[in-house]
């Protein structure tokens, strides 16, 4: 038995809801458009704040507003949060199921508001629907890939909130029928209302941390990638190369490096113009992505020069991959893009090495040999070149 006025929780929920909504709309206006879900979550918080404000006026306004409308707004609010998580994680929002749940709950709530005032049934409907929605929110995060601390924090908070709404559902089944809104002093009711107030803030903070993490990854990606081709920029590539060489030496694994330069590119520019030249560079970068494994790393080394790092790859495989790339480049697949070819130099890491730059120099020399040999060729750095490593 607790003596805290349930309205205090309701007023706190309203205040928190307004604050959270304001923060989310403010973030939405400044965040990149491809980080989705902020506005929808902000709307969800606004719904919850309005619902809590209406509920706190219980007795002073008609019950159609303080009970019926406020309950529907709470369901809409949590529904919006569910949709927002789906949007954020790239899942198409499943509005049909949420709308169906909303209408079923609306029918039940209309019955207990207008036909047969029954506090217990109202609690059952609300806690049942909210258990489903909070569990669905947790499930969206559980199923998402690439989770960090903010995602796990929000996920467990959703699970905890769903657990408490479910406990409220179970206790309502066994509750005395005489209990009403103003006479329900049970501990679980206070925990339930308190959870609602604080989970609005906790979950919103968790979501803000999630979108902040997404923004951080996006900025990191943009800083390390070449804008035109999506390949690694030279400095980011060198960082990755250093790491992979260190790993290869530690694990005694092979590693190969390909240096690639498009042939006669100056004449492509001169003949078709710079824009078409850019299309050729992009086309080649796409072909590289298509031909390589997820773990391989493509860097743009210069204008029409690319470099590819092939971890865990020995001479035979690296030569086959290089030939595949050379062949793919020579395939004329796109009507708007002129035919082009590429010369490739291949160098292999043979420990003990003198580092990344020496490996690049060897691949560069081999690439120069390919140019000298008539272009559209793959050359492997000679033993002497490798010995320089
Ligand atoms: N369109 C376009 N051209 C570029 C870009 N970066 C460099 N280039 C041009 O690419 C050309 C490179 O030519 P070179 O390296 O001199 O040689 P090449 O004509 O490819 O001849 P080989 O390398 O001997 O086959 C230069 O004309 C550069 O201006 C770019 O981002 N877009």
TrEMBL record:
Enzyme Commission designation: 2.7.7.65
Coiled-coil region list: none
Gene3D superfamilies, per database record: 3.30.70.270
Keyword entries, A-Z: Membrane, Transmembrane, Transmembrane helix
Pfam families, A to Z: GGDEF
Key word Transmembrane helix present: yes
One term under GO cellular component: plasma membrane
GO biological process: cell adhesion involved in single-species biofilm formation; negative regulation of bacterial-type flagellum-dependent cell motility
Catalytic reactions on record: 2 GTP = 3',3'-c-di-GMP + 2 diphosphate
InterPro entries in alphabetical order: Diguanylate_Cyclase, GGDEF_dom, Nucleotide_cyclase, Rev_trsase/Diguanyl_cyclase
MF terms (GO), sorted A to Z: diguanylate cyclase activity
UniProt keyword Cell membrane, yes or no: no
Domain GGDEF: start-end pairs: 253-383
SUPFAM superfamilies: Nucleotide cyclase
Cleaved signal peptide residues: none
Membrane-spanning residues: 6-29, 41-61, 97-115, 121-141, 153-171, 191-211
Name under which the protein is recorded: diguanylate cyclase
Lineage: Bacteria, Pseudomonadati, Pseudomonadota, Betaproteobacteria, Burkholderiales
